[in-house]
Amino acid sequence: MSFRRLHDEHMFAGLSDADNGYSCPVPSNGRRSEQLALLVDQVQDYAIFMLDPEGVVATWNRGAERIKGFRADEIIGRHFSTFYTPDAIARDHPAHELEVAVEVGRFEEEGWRVRKDGSRFWANVVITALFDASGKHIGFGKVTRDLTERRALQEELLRSNADLQRFAALAAHDLAEPLRTIGGLADLVSRRYGDQVPAEAIPFLEQIVAGVGRMDALIESLLGYARAGELPPGEQFVAVEPVVRRVLDDLHAATEATQATIALDIPPDAEVRTGEYGLALILQNLISNALKFSQGPEPKVTVAARAREAFWRISVRDHGPGIEAEHLETIFEPFRRGKGPAEPGNGLGLTTCRRIVERHDGMIGVESRPGEGSEFWFTLPAA
To answer: Which domains does the chain have, with CATH numbers?
Structure first.
């Protein structure tokens, strides 16, 4: 069996005893002990082995041989720093890992490791300090998983997303100028030559101007979506209430048009770890939507913040028509909106909000019932 002990057998003597002090003691039954050793030996997706207190390899399983390339007789008795890159060895990183494991019980990280043939692989590493029944430190358990393929896929996905963002920004910019020119010319013809333009042609000019306005809004939404993907997470600590008030100032005309009352319920200590631009963009989308859907003789929109452990939960509530249950699951997807001609927007605002929130390790959602209004909420890490 390749799950072998170091020649210094007495160091791990009693491995099969129930009182050996390990976090998962091996049953005293000899047969079950052999079964456990066989199980560990034959695991091939993980390198599972033990180190003595100095970091010397004491045992080896088939997963370790497959991932790292060493046979048991080639590696047992050698220091585990053999698996580390030259720069990691130069800064004494292997020793640091063992020190942390002894101090707090375990050490975990992802980083580059080296195979027998000198090639590198991206590894998830967990080192657990082992103690006997008397509390004496007797070594370490080490589990390593090869994540090279997953890392490559993640990097490819990041590159693809970056390319998509650049394309969206470029396309939006290149579309904006000719559209605005068309809209400007149509408006100019209508104003300068209004008396000479046939009456039946005026509605067509108005449709051109309105269509350009809608396309311009869509382009701005695309740009906002692209910028949201470029926002670095955890930029700074931002007070919530001042940002809300600035957004409300920007939405003053919309508020006046709906005659809505805006209620704020935000504690003065509400601060989140994000960028001011990102927070403002989320609030602008959510408050703007709430104003669009405000109904009744006295429409009201409430913006609130509540502390939730390491997060702040920020919500925007309206008293509009609410959202059908069938649309709640898809409302944050690109270009997805509620059904009906009265539903304004281009379907990117909520998607942009979700993108910003998730980049900052937060969550976003909605609670709504038809006829009872909607409450959109999101969480962001507390400062």
So the answer is: 9-146 (3.30.450.20), 148-230 (1.10.287), 231-383 (3.30.565.10)
